[in-house]
Specification:
Layout lengths: L20 E5 L3 H12 L4 E6 L6 E4 L2 E2 L4 E8 L2 E8 L5 H9 L2 E8 L3 H10 L4 E6 L8 E5 L2 H4 L2 E6 L9 E3 L9
Parallel strand pairs: 1-6, 7-10
Antiparallel strand pairs: 1-7, 2-5, 2-11, 3-4, 3-8, 5-6, 8-9, 9-10
Length: 181
């Protein structure tokens, strides 16, 4: 007998555009971006520290939280790669590393309306484990992780990208090391 939760009409609408990002937890962000650049030619990497004051509002397991992580963002074709180095222990990243070690943590999907996507997730029985909002230049931008690992083997991150990003703390490789186009 088919599982009613798997019927076509019950699919989550925010999945319609597929995966936009792969998130990988790394032990040492600087070493990782250098390896991705030198070995695979993936870059340039835009590096940020996510936490206060950049991220205005954060939660962890349903409660207000203040955590920090360093992230590096780059593209491989149309797919964004996000490398994450956790700087604080009370996060879903620390939970993942404790259980699995470093590696692929999440698939990110873009959403136009985070509140609507979170309501759809909740209606489907998925809970939000961690989120952060307000990291764009205009106070927009929101990410939210859903508790999906036990269902599909990986966490899903909902991403409402900010219209404008703050400048990165640094870019790797430096402009002088990047190939000219």
């Amino acid at each position: 007998m088919p599982d009613p939760d798997m019927e076509e009409g019950n699919r989550l609408p925010f999945l319609k555009n597929g995966i936009a990002q792969v998130g990988i937890i790394v032990e040492d962000l600087d070493k990782a971006v250098e390896t991705y650049w030198k070995l695979f030619g993936i870059g340039p990497w835009h590096i940020y520290t996510y936490g206060k004051p950049l991220v205005k509002r954060m939660t962890y397991r349903g409660r207000p939280a203040e955590y920090k992580m360093r992230v590096a963002l780059s593209w491989i074709g149309p797919l964004r790669i996000e490398l994450i180095e956790m700087l604080e222990e009370d996060t879903i990243y620390a939970e993942f590393v404790k259980e699995h070690g470093y590696g692929v943590h999440h698939f990110g999907v873009l959403v136009d309306d985070m509140e609507e996507a979170l309501a759809q997730a909740e209606e489907a029985g998925l809970t939000m484990t961690q989120d952060g909002a307000g990291f764009g230049l205009d106070g927009d931008g929101h990410y939210a992780y859903l508790d999906t690992e036990d269902k599909i083997g990986v966490t899903i991150e909902l991403i409402q990208r900010p219209k404008r990003r703050v400048p990165p703390e640094r870019i790797y490789p430096p402009e002088s090391d990047a190939p000219s186009s």
